[in-house]
Amino acid sequence: MILAPTTRCAARRVASAAARRSLATLQKPTAGSNATFPVGTTHPSVFNISEKNGFLPAADPLVALPEKYAVLESLLQRMPLTKADGTPGLLATGAFGDAVKTEMPSAINVEAETDPAVLTALFRDYTFAASAYLLEPCDLHVRKTAGPDGMGGTYGLGRSVLPKSLAVPLAAVSRKLGAKPFMEYAQSYALYNYRRIEQDRGLDFENMELIRAFSGMQSEKGFILVHVAMVAHTGKQVAATIGALNAAAKHDRAAFDSHLVAMRSALRAINDEMETMWSRSSPADYLKFRTFIMGTKNTPLFPKGVVYEGVSDAPTFFRGESGANDSIIPTLDNFLGVEMPNNDMTAILKDFRAYRPENHSLWLSWVEERSKAVSVKQYALADPNSAVLYLSLLDLCREFRQRHWNFTKEYIIRRSSHPIATGGSPIVTWLPNQLDHILGAMAQAAAATRNAPLASENAALRDELEGRAAAQRSILDREVKDLGQKFKHQAAETDWNAVKA
């Protein structure tokens, strides 16, 4: 699909104007200032964080590429396992790689592109094409080796060289955006991959369609667009975060508590949206498209990495697409002053920050620095009723992470023995590392109010949340121990060249 020139130009003007508005100077937070989030990016971006759009792009994604990229557009339209018309696509028969070599013998020059919307759409589309090319053999292998129920397949090896027709423009676009030249959550697979059906309606699930997909399945649509629907609530999270930081700086207890209540409401809506994943994306379908969002780092699929032809002869290693790249929970962690344990699992968590739009990474750093500057955690725990609100936010963080862990167990662990998640983290130990720490933080916050005078409803809520955290921690310990018997190679990094198949 190629947009009419007038429509295409209008969309670009909106996105470009929104991007230009963000180019201010990043300021270090001070304890007494009434701060906003003044971001200064060194690269163009459509992901300008605000109280209106939260972590979504400031304008809806560009749906189709300009005419200059018609060959790439055509390949992507024919790429999915099942095309929009219901017929098999290039990936269904393993024909995508050959089609790339035949139809794109040389690289398209992208150096003249400066429009942030076009650059981000190119990044999305070149990363889709690159992942399809590199992981096509793995998809064929897993389908060939899976049982009748679609479970138990093995992945084999991906392609170790990305042809210059994809590698060169992808590297150039990535450099312009300040991104890694590989598929990511925000600028590729999820947050720049939706089309609004009715322009005057909000971004509820029923009002969105996908722009790109690997499988063409309704479950892939559900998997991606539930994430978009979740992030559609983050404008309120951003507003409450900024408001609470400023209230803490001014020691305005009433305003601080009010913003915590607003933050709790936003996180409640996000968690409720997340729960719809069960009905909108079948666990039985997930492995049918999961292959294509895997990375090339810390994975047996690419033990020697991938060479980007025409860019460098040195192999590259990149993390795959992962919901861990989302900024909802990192924002909450940083606001609440949650400090993860100093271990290899936390190092992976920090590494994921490099796979976000620059504005998102700057935002997370800003929230973390300002929360420390105004002592959010200490300020919250100094008042018993604020402390219960703080504890309830930790519980919403726990709920989010627990649901993510439940998804992992049902969508992946029950159906596959592959030890590594799409982002290159160990499948069994990584999420529990964070969840366990949140449960510990809840116990600490609850203890801080143990002898404090509390309203009766707050005392009851504290006891309920404290008991829930203790019970869940015991269950989590048993789960990780039991699953560790099934999944080996759960270190943060594994030398896959030394591991026998």
Please tell me about this protein's structure:
- With 501 residues, this protein is an all-alpha fold.
- The chain has one domain: Methane Monooxygenase Hydroxylase, Chain G, domain 1, CATH 1.20.58.480.
- Helix content is 53%, strand content 3%.
- The protein has 18 helices and five strands.
- A three-stranded mixed beta sheet has the order 1-4-5. It has a two-stranded antiparallel sheet with strand order 2-3.
- Helix 8 (234-249) packs parallel to helix 14, helix 12 packs parallel to helix 14 (358-374) and helix 16 packs antiparallel against helix 17.
- The longest helix has 30 residues, at 116-145.
- The radius of gyration is 23 Å and the shape is globular.
- The model is unreliable at 1-33 (pLDDT under 50).
- Belongs to the indoleamine 2,3-dioxygenase family.
- One of its GO terms (biological process) is L-tryptophan catabolic process to kynurenine.
